[in-house]
Amino acid sequence: MKRRAFLQSSVYVASAATSLLWAPHSNAAGAHSSSGHDQYFARLNDTLKRAGPGRPVMLIDTARMNHNTDQLVRSIGKEKTYRVVVKSLPSVPLLKHVTQRAKTEALMVFHQPFLNAIAQTFPDSDALLGKPMPVRAAETFYKNLPSDAAFNPAKQVQWLVDSEARLAQYLHLAKTLGIKLQVNFEIDVGLRRGGFASTEILGRAIALATAHPTHLTVTGIMGYEPHLSGMKADLSHPEVQKVLTRYHAAIAQLKNHGLGLEHMTLNGAGSHTLKIYERDRTMNDLSAGSGVVMPTDFDTHHLLDNRPALFIATPILKRYDQNPIVTARKERLYYIYGGKWKAKMVSPAETGDPLYESTNQSPITTPGNSDLQVDDYMFLRPTQSEFVMLQFGDLLTVTDGEIDQRWPVFHQTG
Predict the structure, then answer these.
(1) 348 prior amide bond cis, ω within 30
(2) What is the pTM of this model?
(3) 34-56+309-407 adopts what CATH topology?
(4) pLDDT band at 40 (very low <50, low <70, confident <90, very high)
(5) What is the CATH number of domain 62-293?
């Protein structure tokens, strides 16, 4: 029997014995109680009941976001470029806020429609692709780029190349369209998720690119190392040393082919790991996105000073004074608006997992002393930012407990 059917039948069996308990709790005459939330979430709850849209929303705390951005900038330092990861902050106003505060124009992009949006809204940006894109996606980007665009991809887009075969595809595209492409080489620094795994093969790719200067320009290398995430590692850690050894070998290949490093993008790291490289000068370009808003997957060692700034807020649709399925436990049962997000309940505290997963309305149990009412809000922290932020329409920014802006998010297609 499926879990939902089991739960529904259990409710039916229990209804005769618990009919008085299984009566919806009404909120008389607009009375308000927010017990179950601490002061921070109680204030957000009051604000949303007064000024929110009455549906699930994604909130960004601007003060916390600014604090986190400053922390990342401090770790990266003045001698390196902070490259803001677009997929983790998928909103033009959000990206503008972060790039302006961080004083950077460098972006990392993972999706062709986002790249076209960046070309239109960030005409001075430098966009590095964060994953190797099918050549067809690159062709689509150029077809969708307005002919009068101020953005010049020949100087402002670095296409990520992970193999000789993909480089050959990109060279063919450049010849077909009569354009010049900038290419950045992905190297495997230990993640084992693709990229050039040997310096010999990387050397052949560099040689091919430099042999076609009319159509290809080598702009650097990228080595991503999230396998270091969560480690209490510094530069002396053996795994970090392995990453840097592989990176140095790739840099040597650039030099062997007569390429100077002064204008190269030597990219690496991510929110989890960039703090490791505060005193290292191997990479000159470090990426971070989710560390700005801190979903739960980023509660890791090197981000302990960052603060959660991203929350899902969803209204309570129904309240029952006791969970009728487990009558021996003194719990309250709430149904929230929506659910099944990549998120974890953060307020009220000690809230149980949903009795079953539903994208429509999810049953949530709380301790019996929780006294939230229908139309109050519950709050969750997303486990990730990149896709979850696209599920709620405009992002609502909160400053000093008040909603002050609505920031549109990117479209997945276009």
Answers:
(1) yes
(2) 0.90
(3) Lyase, Ornithine Decarboxylase; Chain A, domain 1 (2.40.37)
(4) very high
(5) 3.20.20.10
